[in-house]
Amino acid sequence: MKLSNLFIVLFCTFVAKAQVNSDSAMIKRFFDRELSKGQCYDNLKELCKGYGKRLSGSPIAAGAVEWSYNKMKSYGFDNIYKQEVMVPHWVRGVKEKATYRKSDTSKVERVAVCALGGSIGCKIEGAVIEVNSFEVLKALGKEKVKGKIIFFNRPMDDTNINTFGAYSGAVNQRSRGANEASFMGASGVIVRSMSLGLNRFPHTGAMMRYTDSVPKIPACAISTMDAEKLSSDLSKNSKLKFALEMSSEWLPDTLSHNVICEIKGIEFPQEIIVFGGHLDAWDMAEGAHDDGAGVVQCLEALRLFKELGIRPKRTLRCVFFMNEENGMKGGLKYAEEAKKKNEKTILALESDEGGFTPRGFSFDASGDTLKRLINYKRFFEPYYMSDFHEGGGGTDISPLKDQGTVLMDLNPDTQRYFDFHHAATDVFQSVNKRELELGAAGIASMIYLIDKYGL
Amino acid sequence: MKLSNLFIVLFCTFVAKAQVNSDSAMIKRFFDRELSKGQCYDNLKELCKGYGKRLSGSPIAAGAVEWSYNKMKSYGFDNIYKQEVMVPHWVRGVKEKATYRKSDTSKVERVAVCALGGSIGCKIEGAVIEVNSFEVLKALGKEKVKGKIIFFNRPMDDTNINTFGAYSGAVNQRSRGANEASFMGASGVIVRSMSLGLNRFPHTGAMMRYTDSVPKIPACAISTMDAEKLSSDLSKNSKLKFALEMSSEWLPDTLSHNVICEIKGIEFPQEIIVFGGHLDAWDMAEGAHDDGAGVVQCLEALRLFKELGIRPKRTLRCVFFMNEENGMKGGLKYAEEAKKKNEKTILALESDEGGFTPRGFSFDASGDTLKRLINYKRFFEPYYMSDFHEGGGGTDISPLKDQGTVLMDLNPDTQRYFDFHHAATDVFQSVNKRELELGAAGIASMIYLIDKYGL
Predict the structure, then answer these.
(1) Residue-wise pLDDT tens digits, B259-304
(2) Considering only CA atoms, which of B331, B384, B263, B301 is closest in space to residue A356?
(3) E runs forming strands in A76-168
(4) For the domain with range B93-247, which CATH number is right: 3.40.50.1860, 3.40.30.10, 3.10.450.40, 3.50.30.30?
(5) Closest to B196 (Cα-Cα) out of B230, B162, B172
(6) DSSP 3-state assignment of B8?
(7) pTM confidence score
(8) Alpha-carbon distance B356 to A6, whole Å?
(9) If you ran DSSP here, which 8-state letter would residue A170 be given?
């Protein structure tokens, strides 16, 4: 090698190393600032305590939109706006009551129930048939099912370390159970809550819209503990009657909003990096982990750029999506508008798996892009975020995939997630400040790298 | 290569691969069984709710010893015994009260305090001097310090991702503060609690025994929130008087016990694998994370061997150490007895960092042994436990190091640990069932590999 060539190689190595060091230093600034002076925890408290049951279409959700908009305004970003979106409007109503007797002479057992999101109201009573799958249901035959209440009682698999995998393995009972049971002639549906282990909280969640071809029948969730009890009682008396009363109902679709803020890029403003979570939440508690955590983390990531005086090359856009829980209208609308405007969204990142200690990121990307993203792991290992893998791309950002956008999820530890998911337990107090902040700093750091080096 | 040689290589590769597969399958059995039918969570509840404030020497600690012994008996292990150990016996007493006035005309402010473990009782009142280090204290000079109450207010470093590192950086104020302040002529000590961020709970913990050369002065902890408030009030009125009353006292040393159970090895019974945590706990709450979690996890690991019908080659011994918190007498006694009996303890594993999601193990080992241990990581990655590194060796097992024992710690996620550590918040409800169980299965799996392949 000629001396001059050697010099070039050495110089390039030096520059590359210096760049890594300066990136590491910047990432440390994000984490240090967030862990010492972060605001996302206080923001989560405001959101949860002020606008807890912010289900799409509700006045509380409208309040949460205003809160979000004003909060973004207070941070003085370049561009802050609400994006109109029509959302479904389902209301739980005040009455949710279920009772049964173990035998004709037993005392009345009261069971805590919650309507599944989308269920009609009802006042029914009927015998119960327990099944653990649609196949078993079908095998019973229409004659046997007719007029009965079908009790879907297949537990989430406790042995699955991937709790979202366990969820996927059971959730069709909730999402499709009412339609399947109605097709067989049932009068109602009880679903074992999507939760791991045994606890006393019913967990709600979306069910599919009723299909027109079958009658609408009501569907409720009971806690995993009550599911065990009901199953045991049924084994002793298969004729026991279950009475269910709920006053849930559908109202007309309502105007709501995605809430959006951004810092304009100074070099490639037309290249957009989107990151967000969903602002709406089920009406059982405060939507702290699902997904208050996600929206305040993403807002915080943008705020950190501002606070640390970092001008991005590309446009950084934080989106609070509306209606992830029961319609996904916000995510669809956002992608539709982006397409109309011919926007170039290079990356979309979602945080919607709870505000727990972040373990890494997952990527819906391929080839060199995927390699480069996974290679960023080295920057995150000092923060115990070393699980970088292919996969994912959350609900709200998924419609952007068609536009060539790389999708990415923040992946926290999720062992506790299904203790809180869609239940009365999902309150601000169930979120740990440091764990939440680590996620916010992690998002800011990842966006920093992608903004700096592109994709 | 001759054909016969090629055959040998292929055969060996096949055997090695089959072995890895069978080990992976066995480890999966541990995790599956634990997550579906584990008993450690119920055991933790019994221990915490039945024997919460089990500080060394107390009747509650004696009850916890009996509970442990009977629990071990109920599992039918080969050998179950109590090992006598004399422990210090300090009692908090009923009165803990602190007040001050911002100014002579202000109303009385009441501050939640707790005596540091080992403090004398007192009824004192005095002016307060805030310092953040021993150097600052010394620089004040004896004249200024004389008769004053010294307020150690150096926070744990929130920006340290390693929360135990943050703890190490602040804990000398608690452990040595009283001695250092007494040397300078102070009348008492207030210590900012060892906790991250701001919360309203005072955290106790051991202080060094008083040195004979200086007068004994009382020492208490106040919450991080109250520390901020007191500091602010002092900045406005440096002359405010702080009144402290505590009725803690030392009683004579008391007979207590380590509690031990084992399964005898069938091939090398003289080689012993020890794993344990500490049974004693501070008297503020229930010692759930510190260290009820550790003892029930280790007991569970042994129980899993029994339940799955795995006969170990080596002797597996679970030890509930007594008196880790304020004397370490159990750990010392255990090592002393092992030495007397000339036991060959090949490995000692400790779980004493809280019952949170396990992230991996750390090893006090070197050379090929360290390499082999770190190489076991591949078996744990499916359970998200991939942080295998050199370091550690917990308090109770550390005296075994001199006997050539390899030391190992279970390392969980610790972002939440100092919310609970030594405070009223360390209750059973703060432990998540799955997170606890993952640790128990992880310990069982690691012991399985070490038993099978030796060290």
Answers:
(1) 999 999 999 999 999 999 999 999 999 999 999 999 999 999 999 9
(2) B384
(3) 79-91, 96-101, 108-111, 113-115, 122-131, 149-152
(4) 3.50.30.30
(5) B162
(6) helix
(7) 0.95
(8) 51
(9) T
Give the minimum alpha-carbon distance from B200 to chain A in angstroms, rounded to a whole number: 14
Tell me the nearest-neighbour CA distance from B16 into chain A, angstroms. 26
* Cβ–Cβ < 8 Å for A378, A444: no
Are B153 and B223 within 8 A, CB to CB?
A: no
Residues of B in contact with A434 (CB under 8 A): 158, 163, 196-197, 415-416
Tell me the per-residue pLDDT of B364-422, one tens digit each, with 9 for 90 and over.
Answer: 999 999 999 999 999 999 999 999 999 978 999 999 999 999 999 999 999 999 999 99
A389/B contact by beta carbon, under 8 A: no
Distance CA A339, CA A420 (A): 35
- CA angle, corner B166, sides to B161 and B169, nearest 5? 150
| Topology, domain A29-90+252-453 | Aminopeptidase (3.40.630)
Instruction: Tell me the pLDDT of chain A averaged across its residues.
Output: 96
For residues A56 and A396, what is the distance between their CA atoms, to the nearest angstrom?
A: 14
Residue that is written with structure tokens 């019994």 in the block: B46
Q: Which residues have C-beta within 8 Å of that of residue A104, sequence separation ≥ 6?
A: none
Domain ranges, ordered by start, for chain A: 29-90+252-453, 93-247
* Burial of A146 per CB tally in 10 Å (0-12, 13-18, 19+): exposed
Tell me whether 0.90 is exceeded by the ipTM. yes
Domain B31-90+252-453 carries which CATH code? 3.40.630.10
Locate the chain B residue with the closest alpha carbon to A441: B159
- A382-393 burial, b at 16+ Cβ within 10 Å, e below that, comes to ebbbebbeeebb
